[in-house]
C-alpha cells in the first residue's frame, strides 16, 4: 500500500477521520476533503505529513473535475477513493419538503457519482484502483424519519454493484461498507436524547455494544488492500450483527 494516493471525502471527523488516519499511518498520501477550513487543517495536522487538507464543497458538482485533475497532476495517480461525506436530517416523512429531500440526495448521491466518475477516468489511465462507498444501516432495513437519507444510502448500494460490474474490466474494484451504530459524537448526541431508540439499538445488536470508528477504518483499509484483490461489488455491514439481529 506504500506510495499510493487516496482521497477521503468528509475526512475531517468521525468515520472519515479514522479512515484517513489509518491510511496516513500506513504510508498512503491522503487528500482529506472537507468543507470547514479550520477543522480540516487541524485534522490533517493530527494525522501527520501524509495528510493533505483539501477545502472543498462537494455539492459544487461542476468544480469536481478540476479538483480531481489537480490531485492527478500533482501525484500522477489516484489509487483509492473513499466516498464518506454525507448529511442527514431527522424529520417525519410528510413534513420533508422537496428542497430538503433534494439537498440530502444531492450531497449523498450526486456528489458521490460525480467524484467517482472523474476519479475512474484517472484510474483507467493508470491501470486500476479501489473505490469504497460508505452506506448505512438505513439501507439495510427501514428506519423512521430519515426518508431522504435512507433513499440516498440505498441508492449508493445499487450504484456500488453497477459500478463494480462495469469497471472490473479496467482493474477497478468498487465495494461498500455499511456501518452499524458506531461510537461518535453524532451518534452519542442522537441516542442520548432518545432512550427508547438507544435501548432498541443495543437490544438488536448481538454483540451488545457500539463499534468504534477504527472498526470502519480497518474494514475500508482491507477493501483497498491487496488482501481483498478478488472482492468487488460487495456491501459489508460492520455492525456487531445489528443488521441480522432479532
UniProtKB/TrEMBL annotation:
The lineage of its organism: Bacteria, Pseudomonadati, Bacteroidota, Flavobacteriia, Flavobacteriales. The keyword Chloroplast does not apply. This is SDR family oxidoreductase. GO terms for molecular function: oxidoreductase activity, acting on the CH-OH group of donors, NAD or NADP as acceptor. The keyword Oxidoreductase applies. Signal peptide: none annotated. Keywords: Oxidoreductase. It comes from the Bacteria. Belongs to the short-chain dehydrogenases/reductases (SDR) family. Pfam families: adh_short_C2 (PF13561). PANTHER family: 3-OXOACYL-[ACYL-CARRIER-PROTEIN] REDUCTASE FABG, SHORT-CHAIN DEHYDROGENASES/REDUCTASES FAMILY MEMBER.
Amino acid at each position: 500500500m506504500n506510495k499510493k494516493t487516496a482521497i477521503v471525502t468528509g475526512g475531517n471527523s468521525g468515520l472519515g477521520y479514522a479512515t484517513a488516519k489509518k491510511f496516513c499511518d500506513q504510508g498512503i498520501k491522503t487528500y482529506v476533503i472537507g468543507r470547514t477550513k479550520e477543522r480540516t487543517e487541524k485534522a490533517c495536522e493530527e494525522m501527520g505529513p501524509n495528510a493533505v487538507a483539501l477545502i472543498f464543497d462537494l455539492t459544487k458538482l461542476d468544480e469536481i473535475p478540476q479538483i480531481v485533475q489537480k490531485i492527478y497532476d500533482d501525484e500522477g495517480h489516484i489509487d483509492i477513493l473513499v466516498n464518506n461525506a454525507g448529511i442527514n436530517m431527522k424529520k417525519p416523512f410528510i413534513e420533508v419538503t422537496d428542497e430538503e429531500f433534494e439537498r440530502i440526495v444531492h450531497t449523498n448521491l450526486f456528489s458521490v457519482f460525480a467524484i467517482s466518475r472523474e476519479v475512474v477516468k484517472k484510474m483507467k489511465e493508470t491501470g486500476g484502483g479501489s473505490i469504497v462507498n460508505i452506506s448505512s444501516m438505513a439501507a439495510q432495513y427501514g428506519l423512521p424519519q430519515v426518508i431522504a437519507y435512507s433513499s440516498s444510502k440505498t441508492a449508493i448500494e445499487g450504484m456500488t454493484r453497477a459500478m463494480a460490474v462495469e469497471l472490473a474490466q479496467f482493474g477497478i474494484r468498487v465495494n461498500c461498507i455499511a456501518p452499524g451504530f458506531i461510537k461518535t459524537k453524532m451518534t452519542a448526541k442522537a441516542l442520548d436524547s432518545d432512550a427508547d431508540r438507544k435501548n432498541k439499538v443495543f437490544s438488536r445488536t448481538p454483540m451488545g455494544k457500539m463499534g468504534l470508528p477504527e472498526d470502519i477504518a480497518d474494514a475500508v483499509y482491507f477493501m483497498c488492500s491487496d488482501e481483498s484483490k478478488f472482492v468487488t461489488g460487495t456491501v459489508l455491514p460492520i455492525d456487531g450483527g445489528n443488521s441480522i439481529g432479532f
